[in-house]
Each structure stands twice: as C-alpha cells, then as structure tokens.
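Entry 12.
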Amino acid sequence: ATGNYTKYEGWEIDKAIRIAQRVAGNARAEDFDEEYAKYAARRKKYFEDKEAAEAETRRREQERTERENRRWVIRNRELKKYTGEEKDAAVPDEVTSIGERAFAGNAVLQSVVLPKGVTAIGEYAFSECKNLKSISLPAGVQKIGDFAFFCCNQLKAITIPAAITAFGTGRFQGCKNLTNVTLPAGMEKIGESAFSECDNLTNITLPGRVKEIGAYAFAGCGSLTSITLPAGVKEIGRGAFNGCTSLKTVTIPDGVKEIGNSAFNGCDNLKKVIMSTHTYFGDWAFPEDCQIVYR
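Predicted 3D structure (tokens):
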C-alpha cells in the first residue's frame, strides 16, 4: 500500500499505516484519506460521547449532593431538620446533637441510626414518628429533651444510656407498643408523664437509685401488671399510676414520704397496698375499695 503519511503526526502515523494496509494494492491517496477520515470521525464521536457521559455523571453527583444537603440540614454539628423520605435513615457522622423537632412528624421513617458522637437529643426530636420501630441511643447521650419520642406508636424497645440520671416531661408518652424499657443504674428521677399511655408496657424495673416518680409518670399504662418500687423512693407524684387497670398489688417502701393525689386512682384491680404509717397520701390516692395494710 502506498500513501502520503507526512501530514499525519505522532500516534496517528501507526493508525494511518494500518488503515493504508487495508486499502487494496496501490490505492490512491484519496482512498487512504477517506478511510482515515472515517476513523477520525469515529474517534471524535467516541471522545465526545465519553465527555458527555462524564458530564452527566458530574451533574447527577451534584444533584445528589444538593439533595443530600437539603435532606440533612446541619449547622454547627447539630441536625436541625431531616427532610428525607427513606424508611431507614443513618444520621451523618459529623452530627453531635439532634435538634428540636428534627424528625418530628415523619410518617415514613422506620429506623434511625445515630452516630456515636451524639450527646444530646432535643425536645420533640422524634415526636409523632408514628412508624418508627427501631432506634439505638449511643452510649454518650447525656440529655434527652421533653417529649423527644412522644407518640412513636410502633417503637417497641428502648435502652436509656448510662449518662442519663433524670427524665423530664413526656419522653416516651403515648408510645403505645413500647414493651421493653431498660433504665440505667444511675437513674434517680422518672419525670412527669415519662411513660404515660404506654398501653402495652407490662412491667418495668426501676433502678435502685430512683428517688422520685413524677406526676403521671406511668398514668394510663393499662397493661402494667406489676411495679417494684426501690427502697430509695421518697416521693410518688400525683396521678403517677392513675389508670393502671392491671395493677393488683403494690408495696410502698418505708422511705416514701408522700404519695400525691390520685396516684393510684383508677387502678380498678388494685385491691391491696402495703405501706408505712409514716407515709402521707393525698386525696383519692387509691381506689375506694382498695385495702391499705400498714406495717
């Protein structure tokens, strides 16, 4: 094969020779140029398509990043808001606190994974996440805000980290399917309405250091069949066990100084209470037909 290769440079020469060899006999230079032009056009299209594909990949990655940024609104390492629609959410590792109402009202969410560095969960953070079934609180969590898990109807189990020594208001109020609660040994106070209206809570072990059971702490827990009050308890707040219709017997520790109004009222099956003569109890503290046995 013959041809004028002088106008082709560098890597093009080898390709030009191979093309020329495919041209039969003593082909004209025009034939060579035509064959090479086809190759050059194919090569140009290849790189154009490659560049277009890479540009599309970059565009999609940018869109994904923008969606991610909109999904997780984070400022100063605090998660301010989650707007995603996934059933399972893993909070970014940079987050150290969950802000007020960050997940509130998310009806899609079923499970949440919190990073190890989280130390605080704000008020109403997961309130009314009606399909939330699973969440593990990292060991470093030191604060759980009021009503943080209010009305998480599908939540069945929760383990409270060791650093938590007191509950505020309504932490798990209205968690109707909550059946398994593990409280840390250092817990000293069960706050107001902490577990009220947890319809399926059948029993709970209160740590030995608990001194105070707040108002309405377990009110309306209709499935609660037994409760063991630690010896260190000093006060049982008003309505603390009001409406616990499955309770049958309660022993009040000698150290309890005060039982608030209606503390055990509405406990229709509570027939016997054993308590010290030194304990003061308020109006309607027990059902009318409940027998009080003094030690």
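Annotation: The mean pLDDT is 88. The longest strand covers residues 78-82.
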